[in-house]
């Protein structure tokens, strides 16, 4: 199956675009390439780019499939474009999109961690420190920054929808400092509902607890520190909204995301 | 380690026999099931391979006239009227002459479902329990569907799509519970189809969903599709909006409201869309949503098997779409059962109940046999799996 998709993508993108499959989820397939869609070749030869492709689903009626692909690719690219303009918020830059065929062309971020630590997302980063010093000052600084990013996202009334430690990419800044970027806004939306924000935080908490359970308590504290900083930086209004989000977050945790029983 | 032979069969028999009573909605089902006592069940999770033999599986459905749904009170009355007759017939079919000697356990549906019908069947179960001095097991209806599906198809650890009149859930097993990964945020899929059928006065025999499926097959122009809302939210879905929208269309169609441009040509006033087109569009839309959340769950838990259970699960179009989705995944397999086991029945209650009984979970204390309308799938401790 994946071979079928790869050959379809490469015939669409022409042989001039080399492809490297890096991930396949339920909805999209992700490739890397070193070709920029519109800049001259010499400027882009060293950089990598992400191509996110939503393949057509055979089981769906073609009309439903087409409208969904278009709608989802469009809303994701709009969201990315808007988030990119928010000062302080770090998301990858959108380079190009073809919403009718389901292609997104995004800036590639991150690097490989030293000692075969894998790709520099938050998950691998925390794994790397788990064996040496899980409470290293660098970890603390990074997690607070992650919290700030999420706080900034929520403060501007956007939601991620699928916050996990693998959807946060770390980009090296200087020698021992990392800047987190939020990626994959496939389930993201613009929302001012406290509920959505509470669910976002709950999903993140579950992800941290399930993959880094030993140190989760401290990690959660640091994340929430960063999150609160952003809200507190906005005066009494921020203070009020922070209380709302946190109390809803606790409520969501109590009921385990799901309502008790419906119909 | 799971030992399914914790409790041995009565009277030194080399097999277990269980009677199952189901009546959570408009179907009253009585089933008798037999499990041989096998040595390999003493260690390891083989709960999907009980080599069960179905001795009887009878069902009686309370059918209402077109345009009407079933009300709890009337359904309960139907169950009370038929319960004794069905139990007698099932025992006769299974060749059980002396129930107090030949039955190990009586299983009944504890929930979820409609209160009054559940209650009437539970009373019947308690009565025969006292009469024949046999312990009782209260079974979660959803778990009954899952266990029957696993036993029939032999799927060891599938992602389960449970679709029926009252439930729409995507379930996967993890650490002694059937966890719910995605579900409906408002009404169930069967409920959505039934209510649509009611608006269109589609007959309720044999079931509204079946008639919608047949009408959809007759749709002449499958290229065109009436556009409906598509409301998947992560791994959950919502169907009330779709129902409200398509009901407006259906009503306009009946009234002949020519102002509706989706249904009638704006210039000539000619009817563009018929009942079969609406049925087709509704099915395509709803089922695409179901298959999508199932695929998400499969990617999430890294599974390649799907099991479809519940009344809507016998829809062939849904099975076909699920098959296409699985075909596109590596080693994907789809398991489904036919109407005997998809639609609510007594055998599935007996199957799940007997597994529970074999793990030593039966009771004779009636205060523990109280039925409940709200009974989550993940509340059940699944002792018989690893």
From TrEMBL, chain A:
Annotated membrane-spanning segments are none
Localization terms from the record: Chromosome, Telomere; Cytoplasm; Nucleus
State whether keyword NADP applies.
no
Output the Gene Ontology terms for molecular function: ATP binding; hydrolase activity; protein serine/threonine kinase activity
Gene Ontology annotations of biological process type: tRNA processing; tRNA threonylcarbamoyladenosine metabolic process
Q: What's the superkingdom here? A: Eukaryota
- Write down the top EC class of this protein: transferase
Q: Enumerate the Pfam families for this protein.
A: Kdo (PF06293)
Which residues does the UniProt record annotate as the domain Protein kinase? 16-263
Q: What are the protein's UniProt keywords?
A: Activator, ATP-binding, Chromosome, Cytoplasm, Hydrolase, Kinase, Nucleotide-binding, Nucleus, Phosphoprotein, Serine/threonine-protein kinase, Telomere, Transcription, Transcription regulation, Transferase, tRNA processing
The record's Gene Ontology cellular component field reads: chromosome, telomeric region; cytosol; EKC/KEOPS complex; nucleus
Task: State which Enzyme Commission number(s) the record gives.
Answer: 2.7.11.1
Major location category of this protein: nucleus
Catalytic activities: L-seryl-[protein] + ATP = O-phospho-L-seryl-[protein] + ADP + H(+); L-threonyl-[protein] + ATP = O-phospho-L-threonyl-[protein] + ADP + H(+)
According to the record's subunit comment, the protein's assembly and interactions are: Component of the EKC/KEOPS complex composed of at least BUD32, CGI121, GON7, KAE1 and PCC1; the whole complex dimerizes.
Q: What is stated as this protein's family in its record? A: Belongs to the protein kinase superfamily. BUD32 family.
Q: Which PANTHER family would you find in this protein's record?
A: EKC_KEOPS COMPLEX SUBUNIT TP53RK, NON-SPECIFIC SERINE/THREONINE PROTEIN KINASE
From the Swiss-Prot or TrEMBL record, give the protein name.
EKC/KEOPS complex subunit BUD32
Query: What organism is this sequence from?
Result: Zygosaccharomyces mellis
UniProtKB/TrEMBL annotation, chain B:
Q: What is the species of this protein? A: Zygosaccharomyces mellis
Domain of life where this protein originates? Eukaryota
Grouped into one coarse class, the protein's main location is cytoplasm
Q: Where is it found, in Gene Ontology cellular component terms?
A: cytoplasm; EKC/KEOPS complex; nucleus
Compartment list: Cytoplasm; Nucleus
The protein's name? N(6)-L-threonylcarbamoyladenine synthase
Q: Locate the Gcp-like domain: which residues? A: 58-350
Looking at its record, which EC class is this enzyme?
transferase
């Amino acid at each position: 199956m994946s071979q079928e998709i790869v050959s379809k993508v490469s015939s669409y993108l022409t042989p001039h675009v080399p492809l490297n499959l890096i991930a396949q989820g339920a909805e999209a397939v992700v490739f890397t390439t070193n070709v920029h869609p519109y800049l001259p070749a010499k400027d882009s030869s060293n950089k990598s780019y992400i191509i996110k492709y939503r393949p057509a689903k055979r089981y769906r009626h073609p009309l439903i499939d087409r409208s969904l692909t278009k709608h989802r690719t469009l809303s994701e690219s709009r969201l990315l474009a808007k988030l990119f303009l928010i000062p302080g918020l770090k998301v990858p830059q959108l380079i190009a999109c073809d919403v009718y065929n389901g292609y997104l062309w995004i800036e590639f971020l991150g690097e490989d961690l030293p000692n075969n630590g894998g790709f520099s997302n938050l998950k691998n980063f925390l794994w790397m420190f788990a064996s040496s010093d899980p409470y290293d000052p660098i970890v603390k600084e990074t997690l607070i920054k992650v919290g700030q990013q999420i706080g900034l996202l929520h403060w501007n009334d956007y939601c991620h929808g699928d916050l996990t430690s693998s959807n946060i990419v770390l980009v090296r800044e200087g020698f021992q400092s990392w800047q987190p970027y939020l990626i994959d806004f496939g389930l993201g939306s613009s929302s001012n509902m406290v509920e959505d924000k509470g669910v976002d935080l709950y999903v993140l908490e579950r992800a941290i607890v399930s993959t880094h359970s030993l140190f989760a308590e401290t990690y959660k504290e640091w994340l929430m520190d960063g999150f609160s900083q952003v809200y507190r930086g906005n005066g009494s209004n921020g203070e009020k909204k922070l209380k709302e989000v946190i109390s809803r977050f606790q409520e969501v945790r109590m009921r385990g995301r799901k309502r008790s029983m419906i119909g | 380690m799971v030992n399914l032979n914790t409790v041995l069969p009565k009277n030194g028999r080399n097999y277990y026999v269980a009677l199952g009573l189901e009546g959570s909605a408009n179907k009253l089902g009585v089933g008798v099931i037999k499990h041989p006592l096998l040595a390999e069940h003493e260690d390891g999770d083989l709960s999907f391979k009980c080599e069960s033999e179905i001795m009887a599986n009878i069902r009686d459905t309370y059918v209402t006239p077109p345009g009407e749904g079933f009300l709890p009170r009337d359904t309960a009355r139907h169950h009370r009227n038929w319960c004794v007759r069905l139990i007698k017939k099932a025992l006769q079919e299974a060749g059980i002459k002396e129930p107090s000697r030949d039955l190990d356990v009586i299983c009944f549906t504890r929930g979820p479902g409609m209160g009054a019908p559940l209650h009437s069947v539970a009373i019947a179960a308690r009565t025969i329990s006292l009469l024949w001095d046999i312990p009782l097991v209260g079974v979660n209806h959803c778990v009954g569907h899952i266990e029957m599906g696993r036993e029939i198809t032999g799927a060891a650890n599938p992602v389960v799509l449970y679709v029926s009149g009252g439930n729409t859930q995507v379930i996967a097993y993890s650490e002694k519970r059937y966890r719910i990964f995605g579900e409906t945020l408002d009404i169930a899929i069967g409920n959505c189809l039934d209510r649509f059928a009611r608006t269109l006065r589609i007959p309720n025999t044999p079931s509204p969903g079946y008639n919608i499926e047949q009408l959809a097959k007759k749709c002449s122009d499958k290229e065109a599709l009436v556009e409906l809302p598509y409301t998947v939210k992560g791994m959950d879905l919502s169907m009330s909006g779709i129902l409200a929208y398509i009901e407006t269309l259906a009503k306009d169609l009946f009234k002949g409201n020519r102002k509706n441009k989706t249904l009638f040509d704006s210039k000539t006033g000619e009817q563009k869309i018929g009942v079969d087109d609406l049925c087709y569009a509704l099915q395509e839309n709803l089922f695409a949503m179901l298959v999508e959340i199932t695929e998400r769950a499969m990617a999430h838990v890294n599974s390649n098997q799907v099991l479809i259970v519940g009344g809507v699960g016998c829809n062939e179009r849904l099975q076909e779409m699920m098959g296409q989705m699985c075909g596109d995944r590596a080693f994907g397999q789809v398991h489904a059962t036919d109407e005997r086991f998809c639609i609510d029945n007594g055998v599935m209650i007996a199957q799940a109940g007997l597994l529970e009984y074999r793990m030593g979970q039966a009771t004779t204390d009636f205060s523990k046999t109280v039925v409940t309308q709200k009974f989550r799938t993940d509340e059940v401790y699944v002792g018989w799996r690893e």
